[in-house]
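Here is one chain, start to finish.
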Amino acid sequence: MARTFDDATRRNIAELCTTFTRLAPADAVPDLKRAAVAIALTEDDDGVGTAFLLTRRSASLRSHRAQWALPGGRCDAGETQIAAALRELHEELGLALSERDVLGMLDDYPTRSGYLITPVVVWAGAHAAITANPDEVASVHRIALDAIEADDAFSFVSIPESIRRVIRFRLGSAHIHAPTAALIYQFREVLAGRHTRVADLEQPVFAWK
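Its structure:
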């Protein structure tokens, strides 16, 4: 279902995020480092539909280089997840947004590499002035919401190293894996009015470090 980029869509997604019952943070894993990412909504490439921003990480980064990712990173000491997501959006893409632009938060996702990631849904608005930081971001992509709502957008596979299913998001000829794919999948489910949990979805082995 195509979602026109307008205030009605903003209100609808905000209502869906408000209705979503976010799980409490996983207190059983206090050793995980807190991190936050932004699901930043803006117009699609045609300027008609709604899309979210997805980045390809710089090949010069120390970890997870050249991988697909939502804008985000580790929370600074004393920083909330919302503040961290907004700060990272500004540092990576030059977008200066505020808490007024936040539509909601999804479930925390624990990663194999030692992070607990909080997704923050934000409305970046029309004509968002994106200036990618080349030290962190190789490229920025607008992914239309109807691309993640397609029936064949996500697939699940088994690996011998885990009893958990590996989730994959198909983007053209590429496959994007968890944690990014898991967070996008939960957002897709929220858009459909479903409360689907994703913390048990597995990452591929190459992302365990």
